[in-house]
Design a protein that fits this description.
The chain has helices at residues 24-36, 55-63, 81-103, 115-126, 128-132, 182-185, 187-198, 379-382; strands spanning 41-44, 71-74, 108-113, 134-140, 154-158, 171-174, 214-221, 226-227, 232-237, 252-255, 261-266, 273-278, 284-289, 296-303, 323-331, 338-341, 344-345, 358-364, 387-391, 399-400, 402-405, 411-413, 416-417, 424-430. It has 433 residues and is α/β, with parallel strands linked by helices. The chain has three domains: 24-198, Rossmann fold, CATH 3.40.50.1820; 210-308, Immunoglobulin-like (Sandwich), CATH 2.60.40.2190; 313-433, Immunoglobulin-like. Strands 10-9-12-13-24-15-18-19 form an eight-stranded mixed sheet. A hairpin with a 5-residue loop joins strand 21 and strand 22. It is globular, with a radius of gyration of 21 Å.
Amino acid sequence: MLIPRRKLFALLTGVVLGAGGLSAPAAAQESQHSRENPRPVVFVHGSAGSAMQFRTQAKRLATNGYPAKFIEAHEYDSPNVATILPQIYAGLDARIDRLLTASGADRVDLLAHSLGTFVIQGYLNSSPARAARVAHYVNLDGRTATALPGGVPTLAIWGEGDPARTVTGATNVALPDQSHTQTVSSAETFRAFYRFFTGRDPRTVKVAADRHPQISGRAVLFPSNAGVAGATVEAYPLNPLNGSRLAKRPAHVRAVGADGAFAPIPINPRARYELALVRPGQAVHHFYFEPFQRTDTFVRLLTSNPGEGIGALVDTSDRHTALTFQRQKEWWGAEGDSLYVNGRNILNAANAPRTKRVIGVFAFDNGSDAVTDLTAPLPEFFAITFMTGIDYYIPAGRTVSIVAKSRGDGYTYLPVPAWKSSEHRVSIEIDDN
């Protein structure tokens, strides 16, 4: 479990009441509606993103009274965004239709990050009818604008970078000490957009535990977000001391649908779990998480087909383990973030500089020569946005000791089995909160 986090920043902003400003009675009516019946919330990710960036915020919203079933993410094939915008818009239309019908709400609230702000600004500006179904829009460290997109009340949050960036007419909030993805997942951002949506502060920015939580989500090909077909997900409770399975048989098995979705799995909020993605004739992909404290519908199992994608760049053998780490808050290798693997910090200013905005770390024995070299990143990985690759020899065998330290915060201990990379793939998700 994490040691308690740093104190939160002070309250950031007021509320945007409308393109031309709402009257006081109208503002009160907005807040009253949100307090009694929160509107559906839809998050739209950026380049090479998915619902994962909004996992913590979705659980914060649910902790503060939002129904989890009305918090969704709209995912798309970001590398091909320019050619599929009409399909993205049509899919978003259908999602909003469904959410408004199911919830009985008058409108939805939208958030978008990075490339997603290009998508949503275009969507809102494309049609007055589309804009009329959106109560609030949150523009997260992305595209600037000279007017409110579609005239929709807008909150624009900006991380480190050019302080002159704005959306004209919006409430613009600067978080200069936060990096690009951190502006999506941080407690400070949550406090700001919750107040923007509801007119009041959240009761808490912590994620409160459920008594009977469930997890569900999708198994998808990175970065297209296409569903993984013909697979099953196996859930195993883990021994907290070494990360090994507590039983040979999975506690739960779920089929993966054509869209990659798998049905809810009941879990113990105090336990750690492995989700194993099993496909006939392929290496098992093991996913490890910190304890799921409450219901989580945004679980994403990011993988690739054999010989395709980033996974094809990883050298494998019977002698070593290959690990992939994800965290929706950038790793700053020389500025307070550490990632200890078998007792050695593998992050530094060369392989995870602040300017690289690393959220994905690939660590394996490059060349399968049992030699470690942390002096420079692996260039083919470092060339990919938000990624780095590290030549680190991790012997296959019994257990890999993993300790993650986030800048300004405590330590997280997440041991995992040392699977042979020739037969297994291993991904580890570190919480961002």
